[in-house]
Structure formats: structure tokens, C-alpha cells
Specification:
Elements: H1 2-13, H2 17-42, E1 54-60, H3 76-85, E2 90-93, E3 98-101, E4 104-108, E5 114-119, H4 133-144, H5 151-155, E6 161-166, E7 169-173, H6 192-195, E8 218-220, E9 225-226, E10 232-238, E11 251-257, H7 260-265, E12 272-276, E13 290-295, E14 298-304, H8 314-322, H9 326-331, E15 336-338, H10 357-366, E16 395-401, H11 408-426, E17 430-436, H12 438-447, E18 452-458, H13 466-469, H14 487-498, H15 502-519, E19 522-534, E20 538-539, E21 560-561
Parallel strand pairs: 1-11, 1-12, 16-17, 16-18
Antiparallel strand pairs: 2-3, 4-5, 5-7, 6-7, 8-10, 9-10, 10-11, 12-19, 13-19, 14-18, 14-19, 15-19, 20-21
Length: 567
């Protein structure tokens, strides 16, 4: 090495001043690009840290990513990308907690049953084609199709008549007023000229979902790609022809990691992690990141099949709830908040269902489930479970989703089920747990062939209880997982939908909550509390009134990096 520098020094002495300067510049450039090449080999995304026009978001997504606004309910990754690539007739404004005009202006009739939309002028698809009313009709036609595979979105447009008035005008007609209807109108519009020949049944597997064309503030720069470790990457670039306020940030890179460990290997390349769970909590100790917490209107619970012969008696359902101490359960889990009513807009503290083992035992006895005793009225040794009138052990089946071994979802589900099995065993109730893979679980949700099911529900923007608790949704494919049917509940749900008066709506929500508390179709357990991590490269992120993680992008036009923040 000494000989190298000696020879190099002698060579430099032989150069004139201009040659010396050029040599030094060349050496510095060689070292600079050499370092960048090494960084790229270690972590391809790390170079983005130096790019003031680009930032990188990391998202965990075990499922293949789809970029299609009709399937945003399937995963956070789908919703995140679709929010930026597509636009809806309306959009949610977190500051106002209301829906405002986006692709179109809206006029609602006095009887609240007709919604007339007038499209904005000069809205262009990313490929340069103009947006027309035909695109809107096409999109909602897909949603209303019998073959459409998203039951939650489809339910929002049941019975809605959608018609084209002219090239810029669309009218939607409802059979009765629905105060929650506007919250369904932010679904992204799809391009008819690209997808018109794609059958509804094939839309879920269309190549369009990898390289889509939308009207949103960002467009996909290249087809979604998958690396050897299962990471999916997509680069979004600013849509220079965007019809509204254009974002300041030129590019957004999304890295969708199959699990936490793969993400942790590339943490140096990440600027934002919007949802921190599992092993990612280690990132919260990284001084590079600022920690922010948030929760969403969603919950996990045990849904009782009220049509099951073993659960028809509400006293049994009351007993099952009374045997569970939610605070003990939550103490065994991470980042969970207790929930006591599925009506998320109500004050949870007003609906606390306190555990009481004595009351639970009394309710089970009154329902006809008793411990076997001898002629002297003493409990027979070895008798653990209650029996029905025919002498059979009282046993209930519990359906639960089996997640990937070692994942936080698997740990959470296993701990929850283990706690519940033991809690109910103390009351003499035997539980047979049926762990199901994703496909089996989806089929169980569809057919509702279980006594109980451990499941989660996300209320989204409108907190509308119709899809989850109205008797019409107890059918196969519906989301009334308890098969709960109540004239009293239906009446309140329909009144809540039809009233636009806030005070009346609040009063009827309390009445509905009371009906659910009395009939006990569900044991609501908890909702998650999430962490949002940012290295502060991106400024002006608002975390106000989120219903989904993707709501962070609603004010993306205000986001900025570096010098842009001073403009």
C-alpha cells in the first residue's frame, strides 16, 4: 500500500495543475459511485434516502398486491396504492369528517333519494383518454354484478338504480333515504376503454391490477415487480395532468414486504412505516424514527350463531359473556384497547359488560345445562362439563383463522382462543376449536356453519351497522356473522340510515346498542392500537380522524420534502 501511494505521488508530480485537478475529481467521482454501487447491492432501496424527490414507504403484505379500487377491502396494501392511483366521485376529508367533491360535484334531492353527479371538465386518465360518464356506469355496473367478489362493497349498492343522463351527468336513485350512502361514493372509478372486455369473474386476476391506469394524483411508473425474497415494489410518479392540486413530491416508492424480518433487513431504506406490529416494534427503538400512535374503527369479537340450537337461548350467550374478563385477556396481548359495543361511535365506557361467574352459572343452569350429580346431590368426581337434558356434554364449536406460524396474528389468535377456552371451561362449557386456513375460514364466513367464530370487522367511514347486523344480511355471503334477526334491531338500523338529524341518529344508535346488549349476538373484545413511524423526511403528514391507514394520503398535496417545504 505504501508503494502504491509513493508511485501515485510521483505520477501526480509529473502532472500540470489542470491535470492534477481533473485527476482528483475523477478519483472522488470513482469513490462516490463505488460507494453507491455497494449500497445498492446491500439494499437497493437505500439509494432513495438521498433522493429529495422520492421517499419510501414500507408495508407488510403477505398477500400478492392488487392495485384495484374495487378490492381495497382485501388488504391495506391494495387500499394504500389505490388511494393514490384512482379517484372517486367523492373523497373523504378528515378535517371536516365529511365527504366532499372529487371527480364530480354532487346535488342531492330534497327527499334524499336522488344523487346527481356532474363530472369535472378535462379529467384525463393516466393514458391520456378523457374520463366520461360511461366509465362511472361501467364501474358501478361491475360492483352490482352478481359475479362481483367483494360482498361488503356490493351490499352498499343493493337496490340502487344508476343511470347515465349525458356524457357528464350520472344519477343514482335510492328506494329510501340513506344517510350513510355518500360514504360509499369514494370508490375509485375504473377505465371502461381498458377493461370493457374483461369478465367480472376475471377482474380479480387481471394484469390490469399490476399496471393500472387511473385518474389519481400519482400513476404507476412500471409494472408491480416481485423480488427473490418475496418483496413487491412499485414506483409511483406524479401525475402532471392531475385535475386538482398536484402534489409537491415527485415520486413515492412502495416496498411491500412478505413479513417483518425481510423489512427489518432493509430498514435503512425506509422513510415511513405506517402500521407497526409484531417484530417491527423493534423499529420503535430506532432513534431515526418518530413514533405516533393511532387507532381505527374496527374490532375483534366472538360472533354467536343465534340460529345454532345450542346458542338460541339468550341466557347461554349472556353466560358466555359473563365468564370472560376482557381486561385479563387484553393484558396477555400487545397494543389492544378494550371494546364493549360494536357501535364504535358510542362511548365504550357506557357499555361495559362486567364479568360475573356466579351470574353466568345461574344463567346456564336456567337454560337447562347442569353438572351431573349423584343421588345425594353432590357433583360426581371427574365431571368437568355441564350436560344437556339428554345427558350429553354441553359442547360448542369455535371457528378461528389459522395464520402463518410465528406471525403476530397467529400469536394473538392463539392466546385469545386459549384464554376463552379456559374461561368457558370454568363455567362448565366445553369448546371444540376448529382452526381453519384462509380458504376454509372464508367459506365458514360465507355459509356460517359454526356455533361461534372469532373474527374482526372494520366499520370504515360511515359506521353503518346495516351490513353487519340487519337481518337481511344473515344470508349466505352476508356479513351478519351471528345470523342475528331482530325486528327491534332492524327498525333502529333502518331509522339510523334514514335520518340525517345528528341528535336523532345518536339516540337511535344508543337504542340499537341496548338491543344488542340485551340479545347478546356478539362478545366484542378489543381493537388494535397502531404505531406510525416516520424519519421526518416527509413533512406535513396529518393524522387527524383516520378511518383507514390510507387516509394519510388524503392531504398528500400538502406533503413536502426538503426545500419544497419552504415554498
Amino acid at each position: 500500500m505504501k508503494n502504491f501511494f509513493k508511485v501515485f505521488g510521483n505520477v501526480l508530480k509529473a502532472y500540470n495543475l489542470e491535470e492534477k485537478v481533473l485527476s482528483v475529481i475523477f478519483i472522488l467521482l470513482f469513490v462516490f459511485f463505488g460507494i453507491k454501487a455497494c449500497l445498492y447491492l446491500i439494499s437497493p432501496g437505500s439509494l432513495l434516502m438521498a433522493d429529495v424527490d422520492t421517499y419510501t414507504e414500507a408495508v407488510i403484505s403477505a398477500r400478492p398486491v392488487l392495485i384495484n379500487p374495487l378490492y381495497t377491502d382485501f388488504s391495506q396494501a391494495n387500499r394504500d396504492i389505490s388511494t393514490l392511483v384512482f379517484s372517486g366521485l367523492l373523497k373523504y376529508d378528515p378535517k371536516l369528517k365529511a365527504f366532499v367533491d372529487d371527480l364530480a360535484s354532487l346535488k342531492i334531492s330534497d327527499d334524499r333519494k336522488e344523487y346527481t353527479f356532474t363530472l369535472k371538465d378535462s379529467v384525463m386518465w393516466h393514458d391520456g383518454q378523457p374520463l366520461t360518464a360511461d366509465d362511472v356506469i361501467f364501474t358501478y355496473g361491475l360492483i352490482q354484478s352478481e359475479e362481483f367478489q367483494n360482498p361488503l362493497l356490493k351490499a352498499n349498492f343493493e337496490g340502487v338504480k344508476i343511470e347515465k343522463i349525458d356524457e357528464k351527468t350520472i344519477k343514482m336513485s335510492l328506494t329510501k333515504p340513506n344517510s350513510f350512502f355518500v360514504s360509499s361514493l369514494n370508490v375509485g372509478i375504473l377505465p371502461q376503454h381498458i377493461l370493457k372486455d374483461t369478465p367480472t369473474t376475471d377482474l380479480l386476476i387481471s394484469q390490469f391490477n399490476l399496471s393500472p391506469v387511473g385518474t389519481g394524483p400519482y400513476k404507476v411508473n412500471a409494472q408491480l415487480e416481485t423480488t427473490s425474497d418475496g418483496t413487491q415494489r412499485v414506483l409511483l410518479v406524479r401525475n402532471e395532468n392531475y385535475y386538482s392540486v398536484k402534489p409537491k413530491i415527485n415520486q413515492i416508492r412502495f416496498d411491500f414486504y412478505p413479513d417483518e424480518n425481510v423489512l427489518l433487513k432493509e430498514k435503512s431504506a425506509v422513510n415511513i412505516v405506517s402500521k407497526v406490529t409484531g417484530a417491527l416494534r423493534d423499529l420503535a427503538n430506532d432513534q431515526r424514527f418518530q413514533k405516533l400512535s393511532y387507532s381505527l374503527p374496527q374490532y375483534t369479537g366472538i360472533f354467536f350463531n343465534t340460529e345454532s340450537a345450542k346458542l338460541k337461548n339468550p341466557k347461554v350467550r349472556v353466560a358466555l359473556v359473563k365468564l370472560v374478563d376482557k381486561d385479563q385477556l387484553i393484558a396477555q396481548l400487545q397494543d389492544k384497547i378494550r371494546v364493549d359495543t360494536p357501535l364504535m361511535e358510542l362511548n365504550q365506557k357506557d357499555w361495559i359488560f362486567k364479568p360475573d361467574e356466579k351470574e353466568a352459572n345461574g344463567a346456564l343452569f336456567d337454560a337447562g345445562y347442569k353438572f351431573k350429580k349423584n343421588d345425594q346431590g353432590e357433583l360426581i368426581a371427574g365431571e368437568t362439563y355441564r350436560r344437556d337434558k339428554d345427558g350429553n356434554e354441553y359442547e360448542l364449536t369455535l371457528a378461528a383463522r389459522k395464520f402463518e406460524d410465528g406471525s403476530e396474528q397467529a400469536s394473538e389468535a392463539e392466546k385469545t382462543v386459549e384464554y376463552l377456552v379456559e374461561a368457558w371451561k370454568k363455567g362448565g362449557v366445553k369448546i371444540a376449536v376448529n382452526w381453519m386456513d384462509e380458504g376454509q375460514f372464508a367459506e365458514a364466513v360465507n355459509t356460517k356453519q359454526y356455533d361461534m367464530i372469532l373474527a374482526g370487522q372494520s366499520m370504515g367511514y360511515n359506521l353503518d351497522t346495516y351490513p353487519f347486523w340487519h337481518s337481511s344480511q344473515a344470508k349466505d355471503g352476508g356479513l351478519n356473522l351471528s345470523k342475528f334477526k331482530s325486528f327491534a334491531a332492524d327498525a333502529q338500523i333502518e331509522k339510523i340510515r334514514s335520518t340525517f338529524d345528528k341528535d336523532e341518529k345518536a339516540d337511535r344508535q344508543k337504542r340499537l346498542a341496548q338491543t344488542l346488549a340485551d340479545e347478546v349476538p356478539v362478545l366484542v373484545l378489543y381493537r388494535p392500537n397502531y404505531l406510525f413511524l416516520t424519519d421526518n423526511k416527509v413533512q406535513n403528514i396529518s393524522m387527524e380522524n383516520w378511518s383507514f391507514e390510507s387516509d394519510r394520503f388524503i392531504n398528500v398535496a400538502d406533503w413536502c420534502i426538503g426545500k419544497e417545504c419552504n415554498n
